[in-house]
User: Fold these one by one.
Assistant:
Number 1:
Amino acid sequence: MLRSNVIRACVIGCLAVGFAFAGLAAASTAAGAESIPATGGEFVPVTAVRLVDSSLGVGWSGKLQPDATRSVTATGLAGFPTAGVLAVMLHIITAHSASTGVNANGNVWAWPAGSARPQYANLANPPLGSTADNTAIVRIGTAGQISFYNGAGGTAVDVQVDVEGYVTSDSTSADGAAFAPLQPRRIVDTADGTGGRSTPLTSTSAWTFHALGAGGIPATGVSAVALNLGAQRTSTQCWVQVQPTGTSASNASYPRVNTYANYTAQELAVVAPDSSGNITFSTNCASTDVYVDVEGYYLIPTDESSGDIYVPITTPTRVIDTRRNIGITGKMTAGRVVSGAHAVTVAGVGEVPSDADAVALNVGAINADKRGYNTVWTDGMTRPARISTINIDPRVNQNNLVFVQTGARGKIDVADPSAIATQSNDLYLDVQGYFYRPASGVAFATPQYFPNVIGDTFYNTVGPAGDILATANDTRGVNDSCLRSGKDIAILSVRGADPARLTVSTVNCMKSYGPRAGGPSTPDGCSWKTGGITRVGRVIYLAVARQLKSCSDGKQTHGLQPSFDASIIKSVDGGKTWTNPWGLTARDGAAPPWEGTLGRYKAMFPGQSFSAPFFIQYGPGNTQTVDGADKYLYSVSNDGIQVQRELPASGAGAAEPGPASERLAVLSRPGWWRRRHMDEFGRRRHASTAGEEQPQPAGDPVRSGIEEVRVDHVLVHPGGE
């Protein structure tokens, strides 16, 4: 693995002519440096770490007051990396300690620090003298922090937060686990003997259950199980905990649900069975019945063949709110079933793609007049028996995070099976994320074409928003968006969780670099071309240079068309605005100014000639976490007029339809890169300064495609970011 602390990014010119220029003193990537937001990732369960306990001064000291926000750092805790974390799984508890007065009002939010607070909360505050809890999977924000807010109309509450696992980002070296969702099925209920126990759980003894093989969970190949854990029929305030068999029941670092007298509580619990597939339940309740509904399981980290990654969405989407007739009109009432033509769409809504396998729903029940429960399941499937997705109680507003499959129609059904005929409640559901299975086996030979993206497309990098930022030359932009203002250079954005289903948009037409193809209308008769593009932290650097065969006489070598008079510009907003080396910042790209007295454009590296300047990348954003840095390798280019001419007109290998030479093509390769080191890839092709190719290791299935390289100079520009 590359670990250089001297130069983390430089620009090199290669391919026979080989000048190198550039560089910048890259920002440090030590602990606390910003990691790349990724589209989605896998789950890594950990022994829970206490992030916040306001009553003990952990995270912050004192109750969370109404209309107050607190932010805490969630990365770098014991067992957690400082980088490579996309989101964290949090168990959030709010406590209202007063024994007299009124119930705690309001709600508590958790969201990425540095971003706008979402419209919908994660947890309703608890009843008088008690606690409320819920699980949330929250994307990491600025500086690795999570923010918490207590509503303006709320009551001051103590807050306790445990981190129970994290979702990997593309820059992590950790091996996470992919998820396999299941239809909910009850596998334990001590009230009726389901699962093998027919008596309540007590504080005097724990109980062990064999989880693997139960309720659709495979007997092997499972690293953790996702359960809806419920406790009911208690006489005091107490808790029920689930953990790997063989671990200490007194250890509070495992998933638990808090409950109180004559109340039914539930909580999402992700727990890793022991080596025999067993989990253990324990409690401090004098007596309580326990039920468990399985929602899915996580594969072992080495098995990615049949699992989903998790994508925490930026803005939670409310798909049901009976108070406002969203999704369902009117309250849920005993015996009511919402399905068929009235089923509620969750796939293809908001940020959720139409073919998501499952969604993470924050389910809330409010305004109940009797006790009962509601069930949520996949439309088109038989309603699961006795599944209490959310329990109903007039004394409290309930919340529960659940994982629900979307099914063939991308919809969910809802029912109120409550036994009391007059029972009713309002219900709301917020989509907080989704599970998605990227396409596998996408080969380099099968690119995705974009006929509506015209231009010569060259270098690319991972942008600060997790997209691919690509440069384009002699371009009209996407859908001719730069036809009028476009010119020599444009910046494009490629997005999507699946490399076989990407979307492309124009970020900036870079008007100051026009006109398209340069030529007689420019002072020197040349045109602008981009070289490399890279990102350090949130700063994007782009190499630009003059180039045109007709104006590069005397600078050519072996008939090539070199670039010259190069500079590096930078952007801190994802390519929308650029700053040149002389301090000009503009949305039009801030092209270097023309120096009339010198007869050329101003340049950081005047007069030097090179073929293809590019930045050496040490992992996305120069984070240097190279192994596991990407789930996919991307190559962004145009398909090339010469290639089109050489392809047969029909039959095997026929050219794709569309413009003959200038379509954008995105090629990707999944999987195999993820657990290989950059230095392993480098050893496949070594090139000396004389351009002599070194022997390739025997049996190596991958060729870099670089046949011969000669680097004559490496110049590092002083200063920089």
Note: Residues 1-38, 441-445, 617-663, 667-721 have pLDDT under 50 and may be disordered.
Number 2:
Amino acid sequence: MKIAMFVASVVLAAGQALPATAHISYTQFLQHVRAGEVASAVITSGRAAAPVTARLRDGRAIDTVLPGDYDHALTLMQERNVDVEIVAAPLSLWNAVPFGLLLAVWLILLWRVRRGKTPWLPA
């Protein structure tokens, strides 16, 4: 019986240890910052829109999306002594696909010219 109660308390405590992140609007985020409720924020930069995950002083986590030019929000967070961390957006291999296709077409044309065929006429 004691073991079952212990296991149940551990499971309940583990479920409460990681609160869910609530998604809020940019306006609501600024209201939290102005009220001094935001303790820290992690901004993922390098995109047209910058996702931000913030930790409130009461322990709750919130996330929103800042506009590409988020200078106003950054200034406001600095004025309210928010611990701000800016991280670079991870690179995606999809960014290299257009270059890879262009390189493939160029190599095929080069190969056809070396074989003595004109690249713009069918074989």
Note: The mean pLDDT is 81.
Number 3:
Amino acid sequence: MECRYYANSGVRRILYGVPRGRLHGRLVIEFEDGSILVLSEATVANIVRAYITVLTHPLVEAVELVKRRLVERKKGYAEYQLVESGEDFERVRDEISKVLGECRLYSHPDDSVEDGSTGSIHGTF
């Protein structure tokens, strides 16, 4: 599996809105290497929920969301949801560190990184 880490310098632009003919928003991220990532509104909402939880909770330092099929759910919610796994945050932090150790940094070719090199490099971020 390929792992890419994009700092701000590796992102060309971000678009968010409701596309014509759709009911829900889409997030489009265009990267300097030409890659494009599109996420659904629901996925973005889950990312925001995880971010806000870690940022604002006095004890939570990391969170894992996993796909679950929910038979019982609030009206209007999709059958498949990303929900908290309940995994110990220390294990989640360890897994994040492991993944980052295998990533390649993608940044704009004109931007220098900490070691003075530019463009795509291997490293821990």
Note: Residues 4-122 form one domain.
